[in-house]
Specification:
This protein is of the alpha/beta class and 279 residues long. The chain has one domain: 4-Layer Sandwich (Nitrilase/N-carbamoyl-D-aminoacid amidohydrolase). Helix content is 27%, strand content 28%. The strands form four sheets. The chain has a six-stranded mixed sheet. A six-stranded mixed sheet has the order 8-9-10-11-14-15, covered by helices on one side.
Length: 279
């Protein structure tokens, strides 16, 4: 693609209500588009970041009624840009299961939803510093991977904790993804030690661009997220990186021909072999 693809990652500190969340992210999206970005990506939990279940249940709604989802769809159409809502916390729609979906939504330049992905791997961990998370208590995990066509190449979808499961990224790359999105709300302790290493590893393994917009800072529910939104090239090189956890715009230009070059140099995606499992 002549001149490359101008993208922007939006780093946010999403408030705990949808009206405040939209007021927080909309000016950043507008600024990114004014700066020339044609593809804009927001983090996990763009519409609400609230882990206290009673408060979150009070604000979570259906995808087609969510104020942030509707507002960002209108904004994409107004600005003529593609937009990935890194994730919106919305009702899953599964009868008999009151848990929400943690859902990525890919929006085209007409404001239409062209792909959905519900987070496959939910964050159930006990960190060494005493922090405890049980995402499975409030989020119903998805059951399908997702790769979508864009004007610039295929995009693989993932969310946050998914980054620790390399087989998903290999599948996305073998399904044709030249870019893989990793919108996140990484905890500060794990982000400090693991975030960049995991992002670079997934890019190297797949020969794809890894686009990782992140939440950052101290949130209303008491959690602290790492920030440091990052763009990694298909050779594993850092193309752009925020060095803080404050709301910001991270711009980058992607040379889509770099994907084919990286995969030709190290054609690991074609070298799978069957093997006997270890006993």
């Amino acid at each position: 693609m002549s001149g490359g693809l101008d993208i922007a990652l939006i780093q946010t500190r999403t408030p705990a209500t949808a009206p405040a969340a939209l007021a927080h992210v909309e000016p950043l999206v507008r600024e990114a588009a004014a700066g020339g970005a044609k593809f804009i990506l927001t983090p996990e939990g763009t519409n609400v970041l609230e882990q206290r279940r009673d408060r979150r249940d009070a604000v979570v709604t259906d995808e087609d009624a969510d104020l942030v989802v509707l507002g960002l769809r209108r904004l994409a159409a107004e600005l003529g840009v593609w937009l990935l809502i890194g994730s919106a916390i919305v009702r899953s729609g599964h009868v008999g299961d009151s848990r929400a979906a943690n859902r990525s939504l890919l929006i085209d330049a007409a404001g239409g939803i062209v792909a959905r992905y519900d987070k496959l791997h939910v964050f159930d961990v006990d960190l060494p510093n005493g922090e405890r998370y049980r995402e499975s208590a409030t989020v119903r995990p998805g059951d399908a991977a997702a790769v979508a066509d864009t004007p610039w190449g295929r995009l693989g979808l993932s969310i946050c904790y998914d980054i620790r499961f390399p087989y998903l990224y290999r599948h996305l790359a073998k399904a044709g993804a030249a870019m893989i999105a990793v919108p996140a709300a990484f905890t500060a302790p794990t982000g400090q030690t693991h975030w960049e290493t995991l992002l670079r590893a997934r890019a190297i393994e797949t020969g794809a661009f890894v686009l990782a917009p992140a939440q950052g800072g101290l949130h209303e529910d008491g959690r602290r997220t790492w920030g440091r939104s990052t763009v990694v090239g298909p050779w594993g090189e850092i193309l752009a990186r925020a060095d803080h956890d404050h709301p910001c715009i991270l711009a980058a230009k992607l040379d889509m021909e770099a994907v084919a070059k990286a995969r030709a140099a190290v054609p690991a995606l074609t070298h799978d072999r069957d093997f006997q499992p270890a006993q």
